[in-house]
Design brief:
The structure holds two protein chains of two kinds. By secondary structure, chain A is of the alpha/beta class. Chain A has 25 helices and nine strands. In chain A, helix 13 packs across helix 25, helix 15 crosses helix 18 and helix 23 packs across helix 24. In chain B, a hairpin with a 5-residue loop joins strand 8 and strand 9. The chains are: A alpha/beta, B alpha+beta.
Chain lengths: 439, 471
C-alpha cells in the first residue's frame, strides 16, 4: 500500500538526479549526530529510490528514517546536482500519511490541529485568548505551583515555561483595518503575511513589522482572507490540505494586487515561495501561484532595500544570529539579516559558530523526536554560550521558541535574551513606544 | 543471507547496535558515488577498534565471508560496492586524530577521520597536509590511502602516497602488521607501506596511519587565462613547467565545460574560448609574485585572449568559482553524470582532448572535459541517463576508446579514482599480462582465500586488446 503511494508521489526524475556524491552529508544534522548512512540525505534518497525500484519494501525502519529527518534542507545548497530534497521528503511523508494508521488520539489531535485549528484564523485567536487568560489570570501560577505540569514530557514542560504571552486579537484588530498607509511617500504596496501562530503568539512582532514597513514607505495591506501558509501540513504529509490553504492565500493576495508579499517567518516564507511548485499541476491556479511565489520576500530583504540605519539608536550590546533553516535553505536569504544586525550603531555582532545549522525545532520535530532535537539543541547552546552575546536573534517563530527554551535549559536566563530580528530593529529605530495591546 | 549464528558472532564482537542487517541498512551501504553500481551486503558492521576488526576478520575467514571496507563511500570506481555480498565494514566510527607530533611533523590518525578535518587540525598549527581530493569534505583518510587519492595540488605536492609514512593494518588472517613509522628513511625489506597505499582494500584493512606534514605556505594567488586554441593552452602548461615553475594549482576547463559553467553561474566567462586555465601559486610572497608574473607572460606569449589575475581574496574566490562549479554545472544537465579520470603525460593534453572530442562526436554523446592540466589528469565527464540503455551502451564504448587513447599516448586508465570494478577490465591494458600475474601473486600472498574486496581490481574477464602500444 505504502509502496504504491510512494511510487505514485515520488518524482523519479529527481531521485535519479541524485548522483550519490555524498556532499550533502556534512550538512545534515541527523547524519552528523548518528554517522549512519541511512540517516543522511543521500541515504534517504537511496531508500526512496530502492522502494520505487522494488529493491525494498517501505517497512517501519524506512518510515522511521524518513521521520527522523528535520526537513531543514541544509543539504540543498551544497548539492552539486541541485536535487530538491525538501520536495522529495514531503512527497514521501505525504505517501506515508496517506496509508498510515495512527492511534485514535493521534488521529484526533492531527485532525483538530491540521483541519480545524490552523486553517481557521478566528479559532487561532480564540485559542490565543484562552491562553492569554491562562497566563494572566493567575491560573498559570497556580498550575505551576501545584506541579501539575510534571506529568508532561520534558520538552513540553520546557515549552510551557518559555511560552510568550498570547494574544486573542490579530493585527487587523490592532490597526483597526486592513490598509495601513505609508508614512511619507509610498514606495511599494506590500502585502503582509501575518501567519497563524505568529499573529497569536508573536503579535507584537507582527505589529512591529507593519510599523517598520509603513515607516519605511510601504503601504501595508493585511489581506483579510489570508490563512495559515500550510508549512506544518506539508511537512507532516498533509500536502492536499496545504494546497487547499495555498489556493486561499493566492486568491487573497492576488485580489489585494500587491507589489511584494512580505513574510517575517522563515518557515512560512519558504512555503509561500514554494506555492508555484505546490500548485504546478493545478491548471486553474498555476499562473496566479507563480505570480504569488515570485512576489514573496523576507522582511529582511525588504528592509535592506528601504531602511536607513543612520537614524537608528545606539545599542551597545553583543548580538549573535541563529539563522532559520527555511529562510536560508528555502528562501536563500543569508546576508540580509546579518547586514542589518551589523548596521546597528554601537552593537557588536558576533558570529555564532554553526549558526547555519538547524536548532532542532523544525516545526513539531522537537515534540515528536525529543531525543534528537534535545541533543541538537544542547550542541547549539554550547556554541551560543561561547559567543557571550546579550541578544540572540532569530527570524522564525519556531526557532525563536526553541532558542528561548534553549536559554532556559542552558541556565542562561537573565544573561541573554532571544529576540526576533523585527523586534530588535523596532527597538533601535524606536521613535515612540511600540503599540501596546488594548486590554 | 548470513546464517543467524554468524550474525550473532559478529554482534557479540561489535555490539548489536553496530551490527545491522535490516533492509534499510543494507540498502544504505549498497552503493558509493559510482553511477549505476549497486549491490546489497548481507550485514553492515561498524567496529570501533583494531581489536574488534581483528575479531571480525577472523569470523569472516572462518566462514569464508567477503569483507568490503568502507569510509564515506565517496569513491568513483565502485571500490566500496559489495558485489559479492558479505560484510560491509564501516570504519567511519574510528574517526580520532590520535596525535599531532610537531617535533617530527607527523599526524597519526584513525581511518575514519575526514580529510578536511586533518587539513583544519594541522593548519591551525601552521602546518599543511597537501593532498586535497575533490571530495575531501566528506572523504575519509582511510579511503584516500586505500585509493591513493589525488587532487588539485598533485603537480607541486604529490598525492596521498607521498605523505603516508607508516600504517597499521589487519591482515586477512587476523594478524596486525605495522609498516614504516615516524621516519623519513626506511629501506628495511619490501616497502609494504607503499604497497598498501592504493591497494583498494584488497590486501589488508588499514586501521591507523602516520602522515607526513609540511609547513603551511604563507600566501597563495590565482589567475584565469583564456585561450581560443586548445593547443596554445596546452603549450602554456608545458612552457610554465619548462621555465622551472611548478604551480600549486594548474587546472583546465574545455569549451563544453566553460559553456555549461557560464550557463549555470553567469560569472562572465567568454563562451567562445577553447580552453581556460586556472593557475595558482603558493609559497613565500616574493616567490609567488615573481612566479605569477612569469606565468602571465608565458600565457600572453601563447596568445591568451584574456588573463584575469586575482588581487583580493574576493577576486580569488570568483576566479576559483569557474573550476569549483564545473561538476555542479555538468551534473545538472542530465540525470546521470559519469565522471572519469583518464590521465596522460601533460605534454599530451592537447591530443588527448582532441581524441575525446572526436570520440564524443562519433558516438553522438555529450562529454565535457576538465581536470588537472598540470599533472595530465583529465576528467572527461559524460552527461547521460542511466535509464536510456541504448545510450549507456554507446557511453561504455566511447569510454573504452578514451581509455585506449590515453594508453596510446603513454597515459593510464585512472589517475586518481582507482580501478575498482569500473576499470578492472582495462587494468591489463596498462600493466600487461606479466604485470597482472605479479599483482595477482601479491593478492594471493596477502589474501589466499580472496576475502578482502573480491572482484575489485582483478576482473574475471579482461577486455580484449591485442596490441599495447607504449609512447
Amino acid at each position: 500500500m505504502l509502496k504504491e503511494a510512494l511510487v505514485k508521489k515520488l518524482d523519479y526524475d529527481e531521485l535519479s538526479n541524485c548522483m550519490r556524491c555524498g556532499f550533502c552529508q556534512p550538512a545534515c544534522p541527523t547524519f552528523r549526530e548518528t554517522g549512519y548512512e541511512a540517516a543522511s540525505p543521500r541515504g534517504r534518497i537511496a531508500l526512496m529510490k530502492a522502494v520505487a525500484d522494488g529493491v525494498m519494501e517501505p517497512d517501519k525502519n524506512f518510515v522511521d528514517q524518513m521521520n527522523l529527518c528535520l526537513g531543514c534542507r541544509a543539504c540543498e545548497p551544497v548539492c552539486p546536482a541541485g536535487v530538491p530534497y525538501g520536495q522529495l521528503i514531503e512527497q514521501t511523508r505525504e505517501a506515508i500519511e496517506e496509508v498510515q494508521e495512527h492511534p485514535w488520539w493521534v488521529k484526533l489531535v492531527r485532525k483538530l490541529a491540521f483541519f480545524h485549528l490552523f486553517p481557521h484564523q478566528k479559532r487561532m485567536y480564540q485559542l490565543g485568548g484562552l491562553l492569554r487568560f491562562y497566563q494572566r489570570s493567575g491560573v498559570q501560577k497556580v498550575v505551576r505551583k501545584l506541579g501539575v505540569l510534571s506529568i508532561l514530557p520534558k520538552q513540553m514542560r520546557e515549552m510551557e515555561a518559555i511560552m510568550p504571552e498570547a494574544s486573542g486579537k490579530g493585527i487587523v484588530d490592532f490597526f483597526g483595518g486592513t490598509v495601513i498607509p505609508a508614512a511619507g511617500e509610498r514606495k511599494y504596496r506590500v502585502g503582509m503575511f501575518h501567519g497563524c501562530i505568529m499573529d497569536v503568539l508573536f503579535n507584537e512582532t507582527n505589529r512591529n513589522t507593519v510599523r517598520i514597513l509603513s515607516e519605511a514607505g510601504c503601504e501595508v495591506i493585511i489581506a483579510p482572507d489570508q490563512v495559515c501558509c500550510g508549512a506544518l501540513h506539508a511537512h507532516s504529509g498533509e500536502r492536499e490540505q496545504a494546497r487547499h490553504l495555498a489556493r486561499k492565500n493566492v486568491a487573497a493576495f492576488h485580489k489585494a494586487d500587491v507589489d511584494i508579499i512580505v513574510s517575517n517567518a522563515g518557515g512560512c516564507g519558504a512555503m509561500l515561495q514554494d506555492y508555484d511548485h505546490l500548485l504546478a499541476e493545478d491548471a486553474e491556479w498555476q499562473e496566479r501561484a507563480q505570480w504569488f511565489a515570485s512576489r514573496v520576500k523576507d522582511i529582511s530583504e525588504v528592509l535592506t532595500l528601504l531602511v536607513e540605519p543612520k537614524e537608528w539608536q545606539s545599542l551597545p550590546q553583543r548580538i549573535t544570529y541563529q539563522s532559520s533553516c527555511h529562510l536560508r535553505n528555502g528562501m536563500k536569504v543569508t546576508k540580509e539579516p546579518v547586514n542589518l544586525l551589523q548596521a546597528i550603531p554601537g552593537a557588536t555582532y558576533v558570529q555564532l559558530r554553526e549558526g547555519d545549522r538547524c536548532c532542532g525545532s523544525a516545526g513539531i520535530y522537537n515534540l515528536v523526536q525529543p531525543e534528537m532535537a534535545g541533543s541538537l539543541l544542547d550542541e547549539k547552546m554550547g556554541h551560543v554560550a561561547a559567543t557571550q552575546a546579550d541578544i540572540l536573534v532569530t527570524s522564525n517563530p519556531g526557532c525563536l521558541l526553541q532558542m528561548k527554551a534553549g536559554i532556559h535549559r542552558a541556565g542562561l536566563e537573565g544573561k541573554m535574551e532571544a529576540v526576533h530580528i523585527v523586534d530588535l530593529l523596532a527597538r533601535v529605530q524606536q521613535k515612540e513606544k511600540p503599540l501596546s495591546p488594548p486590554e | 543471507m548470513l546464517p543467524e549464528s554468524i550474525r550473532e558472532e559478529l554482534c557479540a564482537i561489535v555490539g548489536a547496535k553496530n551490527c545491522l542487517d535490516k533492509k534499510e541498512a543494507l540498502v544504505a551501504y549498497s552503493y558509493d558515488a559510482t553511477p549505476m553500481q549497486q549491490a546489497l551486503p548481507d550485514v553492515v558492521v561498524m567496529p570501533q577498534s583494531t581489536a574488534e576488526i581483528q575479531q571480525v576478520m577472523r569470523v569472516a575467514a572462518r566462514h569464508h565471508i567477503p569483507i568490503v571496507t568502507r569510509g564515506a563511500g565517496s569513491n568513483l570506481c565502485g571500490g566500496t560496492i559489495p558485489v559479492g555480498g558479505g560484510i560491509v565494514l564501516v570504519l567511519s566510527r574510528m574517526n580520532q586524530i590520535v596525535e599531532i607530533d610537531e617535533q617530527n611533523l607527523t599526524i597519526t590518525v584513525q581511518p575514519g577521520v575526514r580529510t578536511v578535518d586533518i587539513h583544519q587540525a594541522v593548519e591551525e598549527l601552521g602546518l599543511f597536509y597537501p593532498p586535497d581530493p575533490g571530495s575531501m569534505v566528506i572523504s575519509t583518510i582511510g579511503g584516500n590511502i586505500a585509493l591513493n587519492s589525488g587532487g588539485l595540488r598533485g603537480l607541486k605536492y604529490g598525492t596521498t602516497k607521498d605523505y603516508v609514512l607508516g600504517l597499521e593494518a589487519v591482515l586477512p588472517n587476523g594478524e596486525v602488521i605495522r609498516t614504516g613509522g615516524k621516519l623519513m628513511k626506511d629501506v628495511a625489506g619490501y616497502d609494504l607501506t607503499k604497497l598498501l597505499v592504493g591497494s583498494e582494500g584488497t590486501l589488508a584493512i588499514i586501521t591507523e596511519a602516520i602522515l607526513k606534514l609540511i609547513p603551511k605556505p604563507q600566501t597563495q594567488r590565482v589567475m584565469l587565462a583564456m585561450f581560443s586554441d586548445m593547443a596554445q593552452a596546452a603549450r602554456s602548461v608545458s612552457d610554465i613547467i619548462a621555465n622551472r615553475i611548478i604551480p600549486g594549482t594548474l587546472e583546465f576547463l574545455d569549451q563544453g565545460t566553460i559553456r555549461v559553467v557560464e550557463d549555470f553561474k553567469q560569472i562572465g566567462l567568454p563562451t567562445d574560448v577553447a580552453a581556460i586555465l586556472l593557475i595558482g601559486q603558493d609559497g613565500e610572497p616574493q616567490t609567488v609574485d615573481r612566479d605569477m608574473g612569469q606565468i602571465a607572460a608565458i600565457c600572453e606569449k601563447n596568445n591568451a585572449v584574456q588573463i584575469k589575475v586575482a588581487t583580493t581574496a574576493e577576486e580569488a574566490d570568483e576566479v576559483m568559482t569557474a573550476r569549483r562549479s564545473a561538476l555542479a554545472a555538468l551534473s545538472r544537465m542530465r540525470p546521470t553524470t559519469i565522471l572519469e579520470d583518464a590521465t596522460v603525460p601533460r605534454a599530451s593534453i592537447a591530443p588527448m582532448v582532441a581524441a575525446i572530442q572526436e570520440i564524443t562526436e562519433r558516438y553522438d554523446l555529450r562529454i565535457c572535459t576538465f581536470g588537472h592540466a598540470g599533472d595530465g589528469n583529465l576528467h572527461p565527464t559524460c552527461m547521460t541517463d542511466a535509464r536510456n540503455t541504448e545510450e549507456i551502451e554507446r557511453v561504455e564504448h566511447a569510454f573504452e576508446e578514451i581509455f585506449a587513447a590515453a594508453i596510446d599516448l603513454g597515459g593510464t586508465i585512472t589517475g586518481e579514482h582507482g580501478v575498482g570494478i569500473v576499470k578492472a577490465p582495462y587494468l591489463e591494458w596498462k600493466v600487461g599480462a606479466a604485470g597482472m600475474e605479479i599483482m595477482k601473486g601479491i593478492k594471493h600472498a596477502f589474501d589466499p582465500h580472496n576475502l578482502l574486496n573480491p572482484d575489485k581490481m582483478f576482473a574475471k574477464q579482461s577486455r580484449n586488446r591485442v596490441v599495447i602500444q607504449r609512447a
